[in-house]
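Students often ask why we bother predicting the structure of a whole assembly rather than each chain alone. The short answer is interfaces. A chain on its own may look different once its partners are present, and contacts between molecules only exist in the joint model. In this exercise we take three input lines together and write out one structure for the complete complex. Read the inputs first and try to guess which parts will touch.
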Amino acid sequence: MNRPSALKMAFVHLGLSLMCIVTLYPVLWVVKMALSPTDGLSLTANPFPETVTFEHFREVLFGTDAEGRWLFGRQLLSSLVVSGATTVVGLTLAVTAAYALSRFRFPGKEGGMQALLVTQMFPATLMLVPIYSILQKLRLLDTLTGLVLVYATTALPFCIWMLKGYFDTLPRELEEAAVMDGASPLQVFLRVVLPLARPALAVTALFSFMTAWNEFVLAATLLNDPTRFTLPVALQRYVGEYKVEWGKFAACALVVSAPVMALFFALQKHLVGGLTAGGVKG
Amino acid sequence: MRRLLALALLVAAWSAHAADAPLKLWHAYRGAEEAALLKATGLFTQKTGVKVELLALPYDAYAAKLTNAIPHGAGPDVFLFNHERLRNFQAQKLVAPTTDRIVRGDYFANTVEALEVEGQLYGYPLSLKSLALYVNTRLVPQPPANTDELLRLLPTLSDAGQGRFGLAYESGDFYYHAAFLFGFDGPLFDASGRASFQTQGMARSLTFVKKLQDAGYIPQEASGALVKSLFNDERAAMVISGPWFAGEVASSVPYRVVALPVVSATGIPMRPFLGVEAAFVSSRAQQPQKAHQLARFLSMGEASRVRATQGRQIPADVAVYQLPEVRDDVLISSFREAARHATPMPNTLEMARVWEPMKLTLRAVLQGGTAPEEAGALADRRYRALHRERPPDASFAPWLGLAGALVLGGGVWVLRRPAAPLPFRQRYPDVARAAAYLAPAAAGLGVLVFIPFAVGLSLSLFHHEAGTYTFVGLANFVDILASRGYRITEPLSFYFTLAVTLLWALVNVVLHVGIGLALALLLKNPLLKLRGLYRVLLIIPWAVPNYITALMWKGMFHRQFGAINGLLVMLGLEPVSWFTRFSTAFAANVATNTWLGFPFMMVVALGALQSIPQELYEAAEVDGASRWTQLRRITLPLLRPAMLPAIILGSVWTFNMFNIIYLVSGGEPGGGTDILVSEAFRWAFQRNEQYGFAAAYSVLIFVVLLGWSAFTRRLTRADAEVTG
Amino acid sequence: MSEVILSGIKKSFGANLIVKGVDLQVGEGEFLVMVGPSGCGKTTLLRLIAGLEQVDAGEVRIAGRRVNDVPPRDRDVAMVFQSYALYPHMTVRENLAFGLTLRKFPQVEIDQRVAEVASMLELSHLLDRKPKALSGGQRQRVAMGRAIVRQPQVFLFDEPLSNLDTALRVQMRGELARLHRRLGATMIYVTHDQVEAMTLATRVAVFNGGVLQQVGPPLELYNRPANRFVAGFLGSPAMNFLEARRDGQHLVGKGFTLPAPADLSPDAARVLVGLRPQDLRVAAQGPLTGTVDAVERLGFDGYAFLTTESGPVAARFDRGTVVSVGDKVSLLPMSDALHVFSEDGATALRHPADRESLGVAS
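Now the answer. The structure tokens for the assembled complex follow.
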């Protein structure tokens, strides 16, 4: 490859830096809101806080509820448990289904794939009422299990699509080689297919995790115990009927977004490879 | 005998258990109000020995939770809510009547009236919420008693260029404007109880407010946060707000609260809506006696005192004002005073139908699109369009017939299909294994995705009103497709909204892909320094939950204080009032959604680019292809197979990107920027829970997307043929 | 006792019948090469033996045991894939050990066997690398090592050398032959390259269109091809075919007359004459003439490709002969060189007498 000229590189850097500024500007605003002592919108276009206070963070992170319980800790735990379990359950279900859809011949395969896509097209808001009734019938209301199942299944169609696309690009000969080496179908799946699908698994896991981590309407509707609420529910509590506590909302928003961002950065290498399912190579 | 004994023991044990069970109390309070409530329930437990379990909910999810939980017996015994939704709760049989239990004289008369539905009383009034005037006493030593005085004061207090205003309130919200409307003697309902908009009072009140805004006396597009920060920075001398605002005022600001001024032109005081917060007893309360006891306890006496002194609420209980600490509390007594003129907000369905047309109209006037005199007519048209009569009931019979015919036809088709050339087992050798792998996912999807989906689909054939569903056949679809109530080219008609939605999806996807691809091409070069850093920074928007993104950008697009206008001014341009015109409001939505959507496409494109073999470019270079030709002939065609699925998925997501539309432009101006999903949402949750109608909208969305996916599927198939 | 017996094997994919009833026996320690054009069913047959596909009809026996319903791992066969199919997420060592680990061999034995195979294949210094970091030839050896380490009764090779360059291929061919001698195991090898077939095989099986055409030692197939397909498939350049009719003591075709071999049955009125280019010389005089289209000089001798009245024909010329494109030349068959087939090419009517001296073309 030719080494590009310095001028060209300068332009590339200029373009990228500009986009980074556009990307960061709104985020800085949230940071400013979270760090500014006065609650509310700033009157300037300057995205840096003039005075800095950690009061909002302190209240969000260490505040106790009226009964003196340290809710943030419990809700963080609950969020982690729910999101983690959603990821595990969602991934397990998606991986097996996607593998079957990619490798096995059976009737209704095409139809099934289409049906999955179709569910993504129906606005989710109208599903709440039936989901509530179903969970009640299953006696899963007000349980984290119920919430996990709902999250995992709602994230499933996308996850299955992603993984199926990726499995399609894996050469079958590797699995056949494993079969010849004496692997049982399960061993082929666990020891050859899954390790090879790591990038796609990472992306799918991230997606499932995000689904659960950011959702609040279902969590607030299905759960009845404030200590089991997830963080976004806590976040939404700053948005009241008459007023919004912007400073705390911003601080809490940053706290809620931080783990997802961390995951993104940790997984970004995989993201690039994993998302390109059915890509040019296939 | 033994069995009987066992049974008796069991019953005894159960009832003993029930006696021990704590009462469940749900609310959406925060901060001081929550603390006061906790103390009040503590007092109740002390007195009766009955434990109370509190659950604090986010306001946005509260109503949905109540309507879902109570009918299933999973709800609270007592819940606190404002009285506005009472009519809905009553119709859905969520609340227990209190007619025989309540002593009317214990409370202010208008608060009890607010809880009346069809001659029955529901709930116990806790507190009042109404508007009053907060006055910065440093800037305004003598509060205005009437609007003439107000108008005299305002010019000296205001300097819009400097961001200073004589008065600030959420002028785009009809809850606030109602005070003006009633002050100008505008009735909201005619003698028959129907909403009426084309009145003198409407025109005059709107003219008055528009003048205030045009003169720069009040800020434009004021949100609660803006009002608060203006008052705390002493850039707003006066503020119209409710008791909740008191907790937001900075300690450095000297202020007092007075009743809203009298409208000089009519001699009538400005009369805000009166909201009543009440403790409602659930119709499915496990322990109704104790629940009533708790609700009543909270509404008066010691509990009332705690709520007033600690929670800073304005009690509805008369007796508590005898206590010196309540009587002498300036804020509470001022609000109590201000509330004397307040109009109890009707808890009727008719009231619920007023909000949306009035909001649209109010904004249309303030944003300058509509003259105040024509506003009433506009509101009336909107009102009639949104006020759907219940369609006539339809008979199930033809539908059952149709379903039967379909099943029969399907059966015949299956049976008459030419026999497969191979036996099933041979054609599908892995059926058993496939079934094993698919079963868990299929079970989950079936129960939690496909059944709700089917229910959602079938809802579209029903009409929902207050908890009961009636079968109406295709009436919902007919209404939507015939664009009943709107001209086809008007915002809110299905076709207009569809066109906006398609434009929305198209523009967004083009921008997402364009920007994503451009950045990916820039980032592709492995010799680029700081590549990793750029990539990390550019991915950030994807990691931010999109409701946070939406609120962020909404603030940035603010007319007077938004960062975007700040930048425009810095560049020497005119600030833009983003949400007053379709083009700019749409652009604001698009900007927000582009910001949050391009990283996904960038990452997909980056992955796809990396998998294009470098030799192809080298070969092209040898062939003398220019950079541009290489991009067009190699990069783009080879990216297609990877990008297409992402684009299809992206377009489906954008099509249903509710949060952005709802939170950024909110459909402004006049519902123009609403897309189909946000319309469906409004029908489901803001227009008297017309689930059936909303479902019909959703079905249409679904059909459009189905068509789109069929189209793209042909694209991908053609693609597969090209690339082999 | 590790012979492989196929009887009446049929296999179809969808509506396509790929293997149309094959009977084949592979004896213990034999090196059987299956050749044929692509799509002839040879790879499918290999996969049926491996157990990667299920037969529709017929029977597969390995070491005397019917294995139709035995999963691949219990058939005691190992397979080397065309693409090598090395596990990219494992090191060479792990790749080699994978099969043994799955079979729960003791770690000591695994280590020992891996080391043994690695040194045999000169892979010892590469054991901790991932496949990505290996050259094509090294990957190929790992793929073979993975099969060898398990010490199976039967080795299956699916075009294992087709991804290598010529020099490596020759080298690996030698190694394969050595390996076979050393292990003495039964090997079944699929290729479309007739050179590999001729050099490696103890017996060659030629397939076309899902049907076994002929099976036998390489030279036998070369010298006594059972039909036109086999005759044309083996040997390079391919055998020339000339249509002819019997006219008394002669075979007469367009533009030539040849004496009919004495042992040819007089019943055959119309026949197909087969002449290997090696048996046809460019000469001053001969029964066949044509115009030279192309010339391939190989050093010691060379081949001329001509157009004759009976169609395209290839012929050999010696170092001393001057042949250039456009020349009109005569061709002279060597004595007793004629293969004669039935008119449709389905059966051979006669072959020249065996000539041990005649080597295999390269």
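Check your guess against this: Chain B has four domains: 19-128+275-344, 132-271+348-381, 409-455, 502-670.
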